[in-house]
Amino acid sequence: MKDSENRYWIWSLAGVFLLVFPLYAPAFWVTQIASQSFILGTIGLSLVLLAGYGGMVSMAQLAVAGVAGYFAAYFGVHSGASLGHPLPWGLTVLVGLAAGTTFATLVGLTAVRCQGIYMIMITLAIAVGLFYLARQNLGFFNAYNGFHGVKAPVLLDTDLRQPIPFYYLCLGCAVALYALVVHLVRTPFGLALAGVRDDARRMRTLGFDVGQIRVLAFLIAGFIASVGGLLRLWYAGSISPGSINVGASITILIIVILGGMAKPIGAFAGALLFVLIQNFAIDFIDRERFNTMIGIILLSIILFLPNGAVGLVESIAKRFRAEAGPSDRRSETGAATELRR
Amino acid sequence: MKARRFVLSAIFGTTLGLAAAASAVQAQELRVGVLATLEGSLTQLGQEALRGTRLALSEVKETVAGRKITLFIAPTNATPDSAINGARRLIEQDKVELIIGPVSGSEGLALVQFAKSNPAVTFVNGTAAAPEATYRDPASNFYRFNADGVMWQAGLGTYAHNDLKYRRVASLVNDYSFGWAQMKGFSMEFCRAGGRIVDRLWTPLGTTDFSSLIARIPKNIDALYVMLVGADATNFITQYVQAGAPVPLIAGTNTVDQTVLATLTRKQLRDFIVGTPSASPVVDNWNDPRYQQFVTAYRKANPDGLPAPASAAFGYYVNTKAVLSALAEVKGDLSGNQQKFRAALAKVVVEGPAGQIRLDENRQGDATIFLTTVKAGGDGKLYNSFVKATSGVTQTMGMDRSAFMKLGVPGRETLQCP
């Protein structure tokens, strides 16, 4: 069997599985596991674009999703507080996405001058700042309480928050954004971004506007995170400062490390892994020990699998291939380039 | 190669299958979820809450009408979304039919909204005490047998003005639903009696450094009304005493309850806190026999617990007891969307340690509230000494519903008298 043919079959099988999965699986698996994985994976995907391809580890991606969520909640239908201006849901979505993307661009403008640990620090500072603002500000963020009973849009008489419509919504967004990222990294912009990651000075000498490329990456990643933020808002039906605190921000980084930063699919693999651990770890350990468990898994992945779960699967696949025939040199060198950051 | 791949996928599939089977519901047992703050600054209250629920359960040997009750505990951290995540996990994963909790006010408000979108599950409060949870926009499947934060302050404002002769006070209160409720409860009486609250300081839950707030406390006041919860209260009292503690305190319910008093081990702190007035659904030395029985049972069941049950244990105890009474009445029958059980729950009269509790039309219980002052016992332990009991406190504090509504939703700006 040829390698490309193999890959084609795997993709088609995965596609069919994802499409029919909710028709047979219990609601818990459809919503709690699958939809949530797509949502977290989407936010993770934005970090993969920034960190994996742009070499910029941003801790503010969840904050971006949070801004989108807060705007969509404020300008959407929710219960309780006398706060907010409900708009038609199409506008609500637009406002949410625009706000998240704008915020991400501002984060980008602030952060692109730094690199490495300094970029992590400044984006983390922005995320923490937003958390404190949301917790204190009563007029827009509704302080400690946040927004609850937030309703998802109703489209053609279908409540999009019902398990199966919501699953397809999440699946659709995840696949579209995944395709966007996969396509993007092959465009001249994507190649330039990878070039900036590998050697910014050389790119500058070649005449590229490094800052502009980086800010643009933040903008696109911000849009992706904003979509994730809206889905997350509808999934939880609520948003409050706890949804955007440091712990939650770090969760996104954990997801991306679990799955592997080298490929966009890593974000979704990591999210699925994280959600599974989160939901089933308690069958093996105390609920209170969850953080210990996730910490140990994270440490072992960092120590033993620098390319995350996706890297593990790839190396296993490569061993199979090595047994079956000559190894695939191309993908090996590809992985090596991606490793070198 | 194919064989190996098959084995791998078979292993993966079996693992998933086993995991799913493990979470399948067993027929006979009654699955009850409990939300408790076991993380963050309200950890002490969460532990205390579980003691309350377990005490009520042990009275019926964890069995109602032949059905064994299995508890599933979801830890939260006092933020609204931790409560929602916990509740979702309890329902979707542990397949609970009832949820008891949460501990904290803003958690409660979020859970009421969550309850509306989960009509199949009955929610019975723990100690969350934001009034609106059962007031403006209640959920038909949310019941609260403990009093709310406004009710818990019954009598305190009047006592501070008329008996302690405080005229000018300032306030320092945790900036969230419960703090706002307590502030409303205190100020509605204190302002009505003619007192003035010259400055109102707010601080988020989880504050550890109070120095800047202490510096902002006005100079010419008679007392400081403080409503801080859990670790915040301990931290504040410590730092306030270090800063010289210029004026005495008037304490909110959780500020001098046993979860805080038990942490004040230094003599300087203990000497300062003695004499602090407060109001609460619990009191440590009331000689009512039924209440004494409750305290004794609590001590016996919790050798590692607090010297006396705090409000969190009390709240979870009466709410759990209500659930158990209603379950006994319908013989553990939760069928028919729990309609029979809910009807029983709405009518149940709970024989609480401090008197009977009945629900109003919004499924909110009435309460007996105690006025207390902190004293030091012969054994050196601090306790809240009984001053006065007010029974039959309702959610509208004895006022007409619409008149009470006009006072406004508890918030930073509610009921000012500067």
Write the layout of secondary structure elements.
The complex is a heterodimer of chains A (341) and B (418).
Chain A: H1 3-24, H2 27-53, H3 61-74, H4 89-111, H5 116-136, E1 154-155, E2 158-159, H6 163-184, H7 188-198, H8 200-205, H9 210-236, H10 246-259, H11 265-280, H12 290-304, H13 308-324, H14 329-339
Antiparallel strand pairs in A: 1-2
Chain B: H1 2-22, E1 30-37, H2 43-59, E2 63-64, E3 67-76, H3 80-92, E4 98-100, H4 105-116, E5 122-124, E6 142-143, H5 156-162, E7 168-174, H6 177-192, E8 196-203, H7 211-216, E9 223-227, H8 231-242, E10 249-251, H9 258-261, H10 267-273, E11 277-280, H11 289-301, H12 311-329, H13 339-347, E12 350-352, E13 355-357, E14 367-376, E15 382-393, H14 401-406
Parallel strand pairs in B: 1-3, 1-4, 4-5, 5-6, 7-8, 7-9, 9-10
Antiparallel strand pairs in B: 2-3, 11-14, 12-13, 14-15
Helix pairs in contact in B: 2-12, 3-4, 5-6, 12-13
Coarse structural class of chain B: alpha/beta
Q: Spell the H/E element sequence of chain B.
A: HEHEEHEHEEHEHEHEHEHHEHHHEEEEH
The percentage helix of chain A is: over 70%
Mean pLDDT of chain B: 88
Report how far the terminal alpha carbons of chain A are from each other: 34 Å
Q: Name the CATH class of the largest domain in chain B.
A: Alpha Beta
The number of helical elements of chain B comes to: 14
Helix content of chain B: 25-40%
CATH topology of the largest domain in chain B: Rossmann fold
Morphology call of chain A: globular
* Beta strand count of chain B: 15
CATH H-tier superfamily of the largest domain in chain B: Response regulator
Which structural category do the helix and sheet elements of chain A fall into? mainly alpha
The tally of structural domains of chain B comes to 2
The poorly predicted ranges of chain B are 18-27
Task: Count interface residues per chain for the largest interface.
Answer: A-B, 34 and 38 residues
Q: Give the H and E element order of chain A.
A: HHHHHEEHHHHHHHHH
**How does the major sheet of chain A shape up?**
2 strands, antiparallel
- Overall pLDDT confidence of chain A: 85
CATH architecture of chain A: Orthogonal Bundle
Biggest sheet strand order of chain B reads: 2-3-1-4-5-6
